Structures are given as structure tokens and as C-alpha cells.
């Protein structure tokens, strides 16, 4: 939203001012360039197809598609440590290109490869089986040992580390457990035990009683069935920052043909998935196969120092997976560092500060254990927490702060507290087939902001809520909360999903990172009074719960991510004993970590202060010069809301955005500004709003020549370039703050009328950060109408509104203009313009190609639509009329007829004479037809600025 009631004074650019400004900008630009300039390429990349022997007996040939990155200067006389860089599930070696380049520029020889079964390599997918993918990786270590550029240990084996995310992270752990030559590993966002990851159960039961994570399992299976990267595969690609589609592809190398039911999966893996997906449960044999591809099977053998980086926004491999890996490896006396960041499989890489910290920790770890460089990395635990939002952009990106704790506290924190929750037992319904289902997160959405804003959806009648009193103080929770629940079921069994919500009194409930605790209970009584309480371990989180908020335990019967009983049933659920329970909360007090972002903040603050002083001087001089300037009014147009004359906008590079535009908006009119992308609409509106200066021509608002900051702008309201509000304020607070900024009396705001237009009801009292896009749009339109300006300019006003709201907006705009005011609307919805506007202005290639009343622009049409009682009979009658050019059906009772000059009355007479009833006849031509004829049907973008 660009406020148009006030602005900066018009500033005259003299040679001296331009020179001073250029000097300042040059200095600032040099600093930014120095900080942002990409590192030079200091390596050579070599593609190769390597043949290895795979399988249990090591006699199955597989060809792996590889790329070897060698730093400049590395040779037999100057060998360097090596890194195996493994991709995530569904990715390829190209997924890791950007990371490989970073590590090569840091002085490491890096080998990336596409795992067998994926595009570019042969073989089948065995889910990191020790006999296949792990054996392949051991062969790659053998290959590195033979390279003269690679540094060797005294025993002759290569100095090598393994880095990977998700699928690649598990490979790093498994390889370290099977090959003692590995010297350091950095596994990221990966698993400990696949059986527990895909069949979790939050009361401590084994995976045989687990609740099947069907949605994530389906994503895995789908991306393995179609091994081209991207799509679902991209959700699993791990830490890779490369783009497969932007990188050159190796030729296909005879990948083993896929089967219709299994794709590129090995038969035993495929059969296991199909069996579990069909039944929702796993056998001991299924679990044994999954555990064989899990790091839990080799943790006691890992001697390589391990940096574990795990994501908090991760419903696939949650923090508990990294905790199990950390405890198992540390039990050997192996150095372990654990870092939690705010991204993950559901949240992407997280904010930039988290990515920077992860890269720094990784390089520090590898530099010490592969090069012997630097002090021994400490065993501190590091983590980040959401501390705010960047409101400078429309997508409301979260910001984080990093903290450290002297040692890894596990999931129990360094302290604990308890918060009471209470509520009577409630009945909840398990729908047949688990549909409809509650939604907690979208697997692989990679949108951290949407998780924080609250993507969860509970289905009425399928959940029960139990609330705590308002918190008396702020709680920094880190680890796994616990709560005691009870359940009764007429079937003796129940699958439930337990969640911990943070309830803000002003913005409502949010589910941290969309995480849930699945529970399968058996041996249940039918009477809740006889139910035995069970303790549920909730998902691990790092979150702050503010004073005044409430905690809410929600127990639901469904979740779209999991398999649930197909049979309908009504359960009764409650908390604790005597309708009360306590939520056990692990707490931690971390020490803030200074980040690169913090250091830059001080530098930028100094630059901003310097710029502010310079700008203040310029504004002071400009105001003094402007103070006595005479404001001229062209009497002829003093009562005309808008006159655009000879408008032209040409940019310095010669691009002509607007060639010649002339039009007028009179009182009482609703004028639609139309044109394809590149026609010049946006540029014209920006000139009209005083946001940019025209090359030629002028814009008159009530006879005043428009300049930035012109007082006449107080008679104009606008919604241009999207709404922008302070998210921590309510809707009504934003409106009041905006009006106060205009300096006009509160009585002139007409706030009640604006609120009625917004139609937000009680939502105007809620914080704007809880608004949907459509709600923000309605609030922006109300803001534009504050003070009831005489000229209203709206750019895509119905964007984000649903059909009833669009219909209401039509009525509002027409009534607004009838009161002697005027409205200019720019829109791409031609049907809405036709129903809303009295006049239209059509632009094409920077010029006006038509203007006038809508009816005149639409004109008459040779095509008409007939609604008849007997379509086949009507078709025969019309076919017999020589002048009729064509007849086409339109629905069950409609015909579209090209009359070719025949009058509609003659056609109706012919139909009625033949016994065919005619219910309705309307011209077929609409504004869209006229628009396409005016612009030649070409609406493709042509570089509009």
C-alpha cells in the first residue's frame, strides 16, 4: 500500500547535488560489492563414470555418475584432504554442485556422485543398504586413496570426511560405522532408525505398534519411482543448494529398467513399503529391513568425530532422531557436536543466519579433524529460535537468534517446570477412512514462514482441547514436553494425535513447526472413568512461550500425514486424573551467539545515520525553496478529478514504457484501465501516483499539476503495489496510525464507513499478522477510502477476494462514484471490469487504442446465445437457414449461433414456427472479445516496467 495523501517535497537535482550523491552511492556500492561479490573459481571439476562392484558378495557391477572437484595447486607434492559429498533422496550429484564448489574453494578435494538407482547411475535403490549404497561409498574411498592429489594418513588411507543431508546424512553415519578410514562426518537432517521415523508412537511402544507416516512414506516412494530430480524429490534432496535443471546432465548410462509397481526400488524394499502402506502396520521382518539401513545399527562402531545438524521444522526426521544418534555415538567417547536450526524437511534451509552458522560449524569441524587446523572444536550445543519477523517484504520471513549451551542437554533441557491444563472429558469422532483429516503440516513445503504463521487445521467434532491458565512468565522450552492423557473406546483401540498449541490472546493458536505426537492405544475401556492414564512424549521443540499466553493440549482423531483406522468410532478423551494434568516442560537458558548479521547491523547503522543526515540537509533546503512556490491551477479542469495529457515515459536505456497516453476521468465515473502485460498500465499508475516522473506530458488532479508531495494528493486515495501494514498491530490500529500520519483531524477519517467497507467484523481487532491475503486486501481498500477521497485509484482491488466479496466490491465502487466522486480501476479480470465500470481505457504497447463507455467498446455482435427447449430440433432448424454460419452447443439447453447478418428476430421466428421454445437470446460478444480484438489477441509480457 502506497499512501498518497502526503509525500516528500519536489527536489530539484543540481549538478552539485548529483555529484555529492554519486560519491556517497559509489562508496556504499563499493562496500556492498566487496561483501557480496562471489568467490573466484579456484578449482577444476572433472566428470567421470566409475565402475564399482556392489551387492552382498561384491559381484554386482554398478556404474556411478561422479564429479571430482580438485582445488588449484593440489597435486602429489601438495595433497589436500578429501570430502565425499552425498545427495539427498531423489537428488543427484548435481544437487550438491554449489556445496561442492564452496568446499573446493575452501581447499578440499570433493567427490560428488549420484547414488545407484537415481538418474545417471545404474543399479537399484536399496535405502543405504550396507551391501549396496554403503559398499559403493567404500569403493569411492578406495578410489580417493589412489588419487595423488588426496592427502593420506601414515597408514596410506585417504584423509577423508563425509558430508550429506537426509539420505546423504544417513550414508555418512553408516559409512563411518562400516569403514574406519573415515576421519570426520557432518550428517544433516537425517534419521537414526527408519522404523521409528516412519512408524512413530509417542507413549514408548515399539514400531510394531507405531502409527504409519503414510504421507512422507508416499513422498519417498513416489520420488524413488520417478528418479528425475525436482517435484517431490526436491523435498528430500537434503542440504544441496544446486539446481539440477540448471546444471549440465551426464548422458543416461543404461539405468536398470523400472517396474510399474516399484520404479527403481529394489524388490525387497518395494514389497516392504507396499505391505506397510496397505495395512498401516509393520511386521518384525519389515522393521529388521528398515533398521539395516539405519545408523542405529552401527552407532557403537563410529569413531569419526561427528557434527550433527538437525532441523526443528521437520515432520520427517524430527529432533529425536539426531538426539538418538548423538547419544549413541558419544557413548563410544567419540567427539560429538549437536546443532539445531529452524529449517528442515518442512522448513527448507531456514533463515540466512542459520545457514551461515551451519556452514561455519561445518568448515570449522572439517578444518580441525581433516587438516589439524585450529583448536579442538568445543562440545557446546548450539541452537536457534524464532525471535521475530522481517516485515520489509511481503512474505513475512522469520528471523532467528542463535544460542549456545556448555554441553548438549539432550531432550530434557537443563531445567524443567510444569504447567497445569484442565478440562472435562470430551467425545471425538474418528471418521470412516480417516476423511476428512486434520492438517498439521505439508510435507516438504519448505516454507518456514507458513509453519510459524500457523498452517494447522482441526476438524470440528474430531478434536478436544484442554487449556492452561495464562502463563505468569516467559518460558524458554527446549526438548520434549510431556503430558498425561486418558482415552476410552468402544472398540478397545484408538489412534490419537496429541499436540501442544501456543495460544496468543490476540492472534489465536499456533502449532510450533506443525509437529504432532501420534499415539496408538490398545486394551481400552469403554468408560472413561475406568481409563488408565498414559504419558505422551510430545515432539522436541526449541520455542519461547510468552507471558500471558496459554498452552493448549489438543487430542485429535485424524491427521492427513498418518494412517488411521478405517472403521468409524466415537472415542472419549481427557487429560490426567480428575480432569487435570500437568505439561512437563524442559527448559534451557542459552548464551546468545554473536552472528555475522549482528556485526553487519552496526556497520549498516552507521551508514544509515550518514545517509539520514545528508537527506535531512537536502530536504531542509528543498522545503525552504518550495515554501514560497506558487501553486497554479488550470481553471478549465478545476472540477475534473483526473486529466492525463500527452504522457510519455522513456527510460535511460531507451526503453519506452509509455509512448502517448491521453484520457480523462470525470465525476461519477468508474473507469477501467485495461491492457496486456507490457502495455504500460503500471508505469502510467506510478506516474499518476507521483512515484515516478514522466519524460513528457502531465497529470492534472482537479486542475493541479501532479508532482511528488503535491497538496492535491490529499484529495486522492490509492491502493497501488500491494498492501503493507505493521503486522504486530491490529487492523483498526493500522488504519488509525495511517490516518494520523496524514496530519488531518480524526473526525475527517470517516473510520466507521471504512470499516463497513472492509467487512472484517471483529477481525479488525486482531493483529494483521493473522490475516489472510484477502483480509489484508480488504483492509487496504478501506485504508484507501479513509477520508472519502474524491478520486480513488485502485490496482487489482479484487485480488485475494472470494466471489461474494468481489460482488460486494462491485456495488461499493459503483455507489462510491455515484456520490460525485470518481474511481480509476486497473484490473486483469475483464468480466469484473465489464460489470463494475462505466467506462474503459484500453492500452496496448504504451498507447491508448480505445476509450469510452463500456457498451460502446463492446459494441454489437454477429454471435448470439440461444437457450431453447429442444436442442436437437433447434439445430436442424438453424442448419436449414442459409445465412447462419455456424451452430455450436453450449451446455444442455444452449446453442451459440453465428448469425452472419441474420437478425435475431428472424431466427427466433423460425425456431418458434418449428415448435421449438426459445427461453433466452443474448449477444455473445463480451468485453473480453472486444479487448482481444483491440490488442490482436497477444497478451504476452513484453517487459513492462
TrEMBL record:
The chain crosses the membrane at residues 599-622. Residues 240-260 are annotated as: Disordered. PROSITE patterns: ABC_TRANSPORTER_1, ABC_TRANSPORTER_2. It comes from the Bacteria. Residues 642-870 form the ABC transporter domain. The keyword Hydrolase applies. Gene3D superfamilies: alpha/beta hydrolase, Galactose-binding domain-like, P-loop containing nucleotide triphosphate hydrolases. GO terms for molecular function: hydrolase activity. SUPFAM superfamilies: alpha/beta-Hydrolases, Galactose-binding domain-like, P-loop containing nucleoside triphosphate hydrolases. The keyword Membrane applies. Keywords: ATP-binding, Hydrolase, Membrane, Nucleotide-binding, Transmembrane, Transmembrane helix, Transport. SMART domains: AAA, PepX_C. PANTHER family: ABC TRANSPORTER, ATP-BINDING PROTEIN. Belongs to the ABC transporter superfamily. This is Alpha/beta fold hydrolase. It comes from Luedemannella helvata.
